[in-house]
Specification:
The protein is mainly α. Helices cover about 65% and strands about 0% of the residues. It starts with a helix and ends with a helix. Keywords: Coiled coil. GO terms for molecular function: DNA polymerase binding. This is FA complementation group I.
Length: about 1250
């Protein structure tokens, strides 16, 4: 053998290869196999058959040898590389033999190591170049050998897929291959998916990128759904969640890597997501998007797409929920918020590539959709807890994403906290309530974790004096639990607050007061009342720290007294700073009762500065000391009424606590405190008596006094008036409570104080009526919400015999009764606008809610038991009746509860005691039944109004009743029997009521539309109303007599115009729904076309959406046909009608199903209507050319469609009126004659003058 090898080597080194060829022909096949080297290849030309056969033997021997594993990896690679170079020179039958060899080896599982598989694509490529080939016993044409191999290969070994990557494939072959691979996914184990996806992504470089991405996303979407269904059933778990999430994470990394290398794949990915309108996203695709966002060129595109998808989902959901018509047509939208939150939960399985995207998405949603500052800094959006609009829901979703991400991922906690705090500091011009809510939630959920980042919080404290007061209060309240467990954070805050106390900025000093008051409330001295007796605790249950073990009682007491000493300095600062202090002292006292002595002493000394100790001296208070002047400017220095209010509330609360047995063990302190209380009582009684004796002149106030804001005297008098009114109110509350229903004299004092209050109030109203240049808005009442609740109950519902004599004093005054209800209205309105009220307990949502329930019970009882028709006419002449005020209060209450306490409506209704027996109505029933009970009460009241004569009819009361019914009906379940009864009753009222009251008509019809749209489509209702309007207003052609119709008696000649606007508004909403449906259908069709390529509807079947749209439009066209023939009053009615007609034609342009009806009915009448409007209105309204343009566009598309479909659709259309410019000869001649006559007359006058 050694000789043969040497011989071959020597022959190969010679110049020619002829001798080598002769030598190799002498060798047997076994010998050739043994000498399979490059020399064999060199000496085996393919031009002769024995040379080609020898080469084939080399291939047959080398392939199994490389697969055997006996060779080193480098040697095997070199051999395969050499064979690949020589493959294209092999003849067709040799290539076919080798292909069959590979197929057989794959079939029996011999291709284990896969070292020789790199050669297989080269063989296939060379074989593909062979046009036709006879192989085997028969004649088999290998025209498409790739498809044969692909089918065979995938049936037996998925790891061989990459073999065909380098094989040239046609589009059909590539699609077949990818579809085959995607179908294999379901047959494989999860662990086998990532490498298969990797090979698939490499294969996508040839094409079918969309198919690859859709297939991968669809597979994992199904796996997620399957895993979610199985998670509900613990016993059946075929897919381990952690394994699935890890596989998804790996696949996402593969896809992102592929997109980095192939930007065409990225473009296809976004294109596919944007086109898939029907169901574009799932948790996997969202995670994939967030991972792709790490690529800089796609970052902005990803977040813009997600922002749009979030808002679109919320808007679609809102549109669908507001219409029964749409709910029946389409399934409920998948919640994108649930998908994003699922992505957050899934990211805990090592998806570090997703977490950064989640943080960015959360802040983008908060920044883009957070509350915006309206006029005068008023926030235009509500809180996250009452989110209803798409923007509010998107903002809340952003907060949820960040909160959940903060809980789950430690590496991003610092970044989230830093970004939240940065926004609190930098966004001073816009509301930051959503960021404060997020910070509060973070603190409550993980306070101990935040201590690790305490340095970031203390850095923010340094900016407190520069921040808006509302931001400071929210920030300090949010981080308050941390102050109890972090001494360093508390000390840092105190240093900052002390500096802020001397800030040149007023807001800085107010922030210092707010911060100190918060500390006083929450660092309680041992022995103070439990927080259950005070406001709702803010502390987190997760803060497992006993304050008394961390800070001993002596340290806490010294700390609080030191803060009080700092706060006393505020009593010499501006009125706003003092006001904050007075409004906060009561809450501090209730939370930290051991400070009572110091607080009462502080208030007493401050009050003495303005109190006149001489008993006979009037007035009893030095009002001139309460104002100061700077040049010509006069402003209030001491809010004396608020000082007195704070003193009264603290005194009464402390007295109430002591009478309940909660007294201190310190006798000396108790004696000192008792002395302060006695002195305060004496001062208050003296002020009461002397205020009653004082006349307006004593305060330099009378009917002749000036109240103009343009002069310093007028400003001073205005301040005095407000102070006097406030003082009287505070004294009224003090005397009422101290009387305890036992002293008739005290109640007489209350009434006398009210009379003085009323006089000043009437003077201010009179000046406002005369055009005084100051706001006519009444000053905010200083009566507390709790007192108002007590007062109203006593005035209207207290039937205790022993109190009858005392209460009769107050009940005898109609003005006082109206005043009491008016103040309740004011407090409820403040609660609706801001979420809290002034005075004690005004910041506590629970206590405010309880007072609201009590007030509502009284108002409801008073209205239902004493209707306005039986009230004294004399009282009604002086002002609004008490019953009407009660009804207005009920409307405000129901609106406020719906806005501020939407989840507690059932508790609210069940707590109302209307019967007077101490038991709530409808208790234990569901919300719909409770609501229905109260709806029936107000329905009866409205029926009483409508059944009486026009003399007894009160328009305002009827409007209020309808408004209340509108608010309450929102709580009815649309699928309930009570809801159907409500609609039936409303339709009956509208059909039978013939009061020609425009406001009542608007209210009833609005209620009807709002209810009807949740029951079924209102188009038939609109048609009937349009017929009634046409019947009432007549035809645009005066010679045409309109058939008298009256479906709804509420529509009359007087109310027809306002009804038209309501009807057209509803027409606009119907058109919005149709437009939305068409857009949905277009998206669905385009999505189906891209997936299946077939959009043909089965013969004889009509799409349900298409059918519903044509029915809607058909009925709507018939209704509009009535309106365009109606002699509507020009102005808003005609303009709105033409605008809606223009929209109708725009929609018809995209949906030409109702050609006949639009052509025969609507279009001819439209031109007549245009002529009618032009005749009535000389100015050319903008709506006319828009309408004409849309009609002509509609006709243009009909002509094009007729040509394409070979159907004459224009046979139904009347030729449009020609609107070209043309000269009217008769008009021109008349104008010329008139001009000549004028010239002749002027010449005659000139001649006469000469």
């Amino acid at each position: 053998m050694k000789v043969s090898v040497d011989k071959i080597l020597s022959l190969s080194e010679s110049d020619g290869v002829d001798e080598l060829q002769k030598h190799l022909t002498l060798l047997s096949d076994d010998q050739v196999s043994e000498y399979q080297t490059v020399f064999v290849m060199l000496g085996s030309p393919v031009s002769v058959s024995h040379g080609a056969n020898r080469r084939l033997l080399v291939y047959k021997h080398c392939i199994p040898l490389c697969e055997s594993g006996d060779l080193q990896t480098e040697v095997a690679s070199d051999i395969i590389g050499l064979l690949m170079l020589e493959t294209h020179s092999l003849p067709g039958h040799a290539l076919a033999t080798l292909a069959s060899l590979y197929v057989d080896a794959i079939k029996v599982g011999e291709m284990n190591s896969g070292r020789s598989l790199e050669l297989f694509p080269t063989i296939l490529t060379a074989l593909a170049a062979t046009e036709a080939l006879a192989y085997g016993k028969g004649k088999l044409l290998f025209v498409k050998p790739k498809l044969f191999f692909t089918h065979f290969c995938l049936e037996h070994e998925e790891n061989c897929i990459f073999c065909v990557r380098d094989v040239p494939l046609s589009a059909e072959e590539l699609q077949f291959l990818i579809e085959k691979i995607l179908r294999m996914f379901l047959k494989l184990d999860l662990q086998e998916i990532p490498p298969l996806v990797y090979q698939l992504l490499l294969l996508s470089a040839k094409g079918c990128k969309k198919l690859v991405l859709e297939g991968i996303i669809s597979y994992f979407k199904k796996q997620d759904q399957l895993q979610k269904e199985e998670s509900e059933d613990v016993e059946v778990q075929t897919i381990p969640q952690d394994q699935l999430r890890h596989v998804e994470g790996t696949v996402i990394l593969h896809i992102v890597f592929a997109i980095r290398l192939d930007h065409e794949l990225g473009r296809e990915f976004f294109k596919n997501l944007k086109m898939a309108h029907s169901d574009p996203l799932c948790p996997f695709s969202i995670a994939l998007l967030l991972s792709v966002a790490r690529i800089q060129r796609y970052e902005e595109q990803v977040f813009e797409f997600l922002k749009g998808a979030v808002t679109k989902n919320f808007k679609d959901d809102q549109i669908q929920h507001s219409s029964k018509f749409l709910q029946e047509l389409l399934p409920q939208c998948n919640s994108i918020s649930d998908m994003i939150l699922d992505t957050v939960k899934n990211s805990v399985f090592g998806w570090d590539h997703v977490t950064q995207g989640l943080v960015q998405l959360g802040f983008i949603l908060l920044d883009s959709f957070g509350p915006k500052a309206g006029a005068f800094g008023k926030v235009t959006e509500g809180t996250s807890s009452t989110a209803k609009t798409p923007n509010q829901l998107a903002c809340r979703l952003g907060g949820q994403v960040l909160l959940e991400s903060f809980k789950m991922h430690e590496p991003i906690r610092g970044e989230i906290l830093e970004q939240v705090l940065n926004r609190l500091v930098t966004k001073t011009a816009s509301p930051v309530t959503h960021f404060i809510d997020l910070l509060s939630s973070i603190v409550m959920s993980a306070p101990m974790i935040l201590l690790e980042s305490s340095s970031k919080v203390t850095e923010t404290f340094d900016q407190l004096s520069y921040l808006p007061l509302s931001t400071v209060q929210g920030l300090l309240k949010a981080v308050q639990p941390l102050l109890k467990v972090s001494m360093s954070m508390k000390d840092a805050l105190i240093l900052v607050l002390r500096k802020a106390m001397f800030s040149s900025n007023l807001d800085g000093r107010k922030s210092a007061v707010a911060g100190f008051l918060l500390l006083l409330k929450n660092f309680r001295i041992l022995g103070s009342l439990a927080s259950s007796q005070a406001s709702q605790a803010i502390t987190s249950s997760q803060v497992q720290a006993d304050v008394h073990s961390r800070y001993n009682t002596a340290a806490n007491e010294a700390f609080c007294l030191e803060i009080l000493s700092s706060l006393r300095r505020c009593l010499n600062q501006q009125a706003d700073v003092r006001l904050m202090l007075y409004e906060g002292f009561h809450d501090v006292l209730r939370r930290n009762s051991q400070l009572a002595s110091s607080i009462m002493q502080t208030l007493l000394s401050q009050l003495k500065r303005y109190f006149e100790p001489e008993r006979d001296l009037l007035p009893p208070l030095k009002l001139e000391s309460c104002i100061s002047a700077h040049g010509d400017q006069v402003f209030i220095q001491e809010p004396l009424a608020h000082l007195l209010c704070c003193t009264v509330h603290c005194l009464l609360w402390n007295q109430n606590i002591q009478s309940g047995g909660n007294v201190s063990d310190d006798e000396d302190g108790e004696d000192e405190e008792g002395g302060v209380q006695s002195e305060l009582h004496a001062i208050l009684e003296s002020i009461t008596k002397r205020m009653i004796k004082s006349e307006l002149e004593d305060f330099e106030l009378d009917k002749c006094a000036e109240f103009s804001t343009s002069s310093s005297v007028g400003v001073k008098n205005s301040i005095y008036a407000v102070l006097v009114m406030g003082l009287n109110e505070v004294l009224m509350e003090y005397n009422f409570i101290t009387a305890n229903y036992n002293s008739k004299n005290h109640f007489e004092d209350v009434l006398e104080l009210f009379k003085r209050y009323h006089k000043v109030s009437e003077i201010l109203k009179e000046r406002a009526g005369k055009g005084r240049p100051m706001s006519s808005k009444t000053s905010r009442s200083l009566l507390s919400l709790g007192f108002i609740s007590t007062l109203l109950t006593a005035l209207f519902r207290d039937s205790t015999q022993s109190r009858e004599e005392s209460l009769s004093v107050l009940r005898s005054s109609g003005d006082f009764l109206r005043y009491s209800v008016s103040v309740a209205l004011q407090k409820i309105q403040q609660l609706e606008e801001t979420g809290h009220t002034d005075g004690p307990e005004g910041q506590s949502p629970d206590k405010t809610f309880r007072h609201l329930c009590d007030i509502t019970s009284v108002l409801m009882w008073r209205y239902t038991n004493v209707p306005s028709t039986v009230e004294d006419a004399g009282k009604k002449e002086k002002g609004q009746s008490v019953s009407l005020l009660c009804l207005e209060g009920l409307l405000r209450v129901f609106t406020t509860v719906l806005l501020r306490y939407p989840t507690r409506m059932s508790n609210f209704l069940s707590s109302l005691d209307v019967s007077g027996e101490g038991e709530a109505e409808g208790e234990g029933s569901d919300l719909t039944e409770q609501t229905a009970f109260y709806i029936r009460q107000f329905q009866r009241a409205l029926m009483n109004q409508l059944s009486g004569g026009e003399e007894e009819f009160n328009s305002k009361e009827a409007q209020l009743l309808v408004s209340i019914l509108s608010v309450l009906s929102r709580h009815l379940n649309p699928s309930s029997q009570q809801f159907v009864q409500m609609i039936t009753w409303t339709v009956k009222i509208c059909k039978e009521t013939n009061f020609e009251d425009i406001s009542l008509t608007k209210g009833l019809l609005s209620l009807l539309f709002n209810l009807h749209v949740l029951y079924k489509s209102p188009v038939s209702l609109l048609w009937e109303m349009c017929q009634d309007i046409h019947s009432q207003l007549g035809d645009i052609d005066q010679d045409v007599e309109v058939e008298k119709q009256s479906h709804f008696a509420i529509i009359s000649m007087k109310t027809a115009a306002s009804t038209t606007l309501l009807v057209l508004s509803q027409v606009g909403k119907v058109l919005d729904e149709v437009d939305w449906l068409i857009a949905k259908k277009k998206g669905q069709i385009s999505s189906d076309r891209t997936i299946s390529g077939n959009t043909q509807q089965p013969l004889g079947q009509q799409d349900p959406i298409e059918k519903a749209v044509t029915i809607q439009l058909g009925t709507l066209l018939t209704a509009l046909h009535e309106l365009v023939q109606t002699a509507l009053p020009t102005g808003p009615c005609t303009d709105t009608l033409m605008r809606e007609l223009s929209r109708t034609y725009s929609i018809l342009t995209t949906l030409t199903k109702y050609v006949k009806l639009s052509g025969s009915h609507l279009t001819p009448q439209c031109y007549s209507f245009i002529t009618y409007v032009q005749a009535k209105v000389l100015r050319e309204t903008k709506a006319i050319p828009n309408l004409i343009f849309n009609i002509e566009q509609y006709e243009k598309f009909l002509i094009l469609l007729s040509k394409k479909s070979k159907v004459n659709l224009m046979q139904y259309m009347k030729q449009s009126t020609s609107r070209d410019f043309r000269i009217n000869a008769a008009t021109l001649e008349a104008a010329l004659q008139e001009q000549e006559q004028q010239q002749d007359q002027s010449q005659h006058r000139k001649a006469a003058c000469l």
